[in-house]
Amino acid sequence: MVEEDRLRRNWDDLLQELRVSQAGVQILTGFLLTVPFTNRFEELTAPQEWIYAVAVVGSVITTSLVVAPVAFHRLLFRENARPWLVAAGNRCAQAGLIALALTVSAVLVLVFDVVFGDLAGLLVGASALALFGLLWGAVPALLGRRHRR
Questions:
Q1: How many domains does the structure of the chain reveal?
Q2: What is the pLDDT of residues 30-53, one digit of tens each?
Q3: Distance separating alpha carbons of residues 5 and 137, to the nearest angstrom
Q4: Per-residue CA distances from 105 to 9, 26, 59, 115 (Å)
């Protein structure tokens, strides 16, 4: 029963974390899907259109990754598959965070490219990726290492 309780807590924690990211990802995806219907979309250069396309695809991939654990659970909830659900949900959440970091960075590249030029877009996009890597990767890795000692 101890293992089942741990798995239940892990699953509940995972779902709560996914709720936080799902809202932002879905808003971002919805926003990106409306952009082509604005007047200024026609002013984008070919490279900017490609950056936009990459951001939209990234947003859809991110959405699929952060919603997948819910679909897994819905299809398998009576199958006693909680160990698999927790492991697969964790992998999807981690991949979803990576996809989210890449997508948000692509959106920043596009926005700053349109407003300030391509160099500004690249600098801001790279800075965002570095920030995500630091906060979502390096800091937890360092703290985890310290905690294990």
A1: 1
A2: 999 999 999 999 999 999 999 999
A3: 28
A4: 32, 16, 11, 15
CA 6/CA 124 separation, integer angstroms: 41
Q: Which domain holds residue 71?
A: 2-35+44-148
For residue 122 the two structure tokens come to: 């690249």
Helix (H, G, I), strand (E, B) or coil at 79: coil
Residues 6+ apart with CB under 8 A from 66: 18, 21, 22, 25, 92, 93, 96, 100
Q: How far apart are CA 97 and CA 122, in angstroms?
A: 21
Nearest in space to 83 (alpha carbons), one of 8, 12, 17:
8
Average pLDDT across the chain, whole number: 94
Average pLDDT on 56-80 reads 94
Contacts of 100 (CB under 8 A, 6+ apart): 21, 24, 25, 62, 66
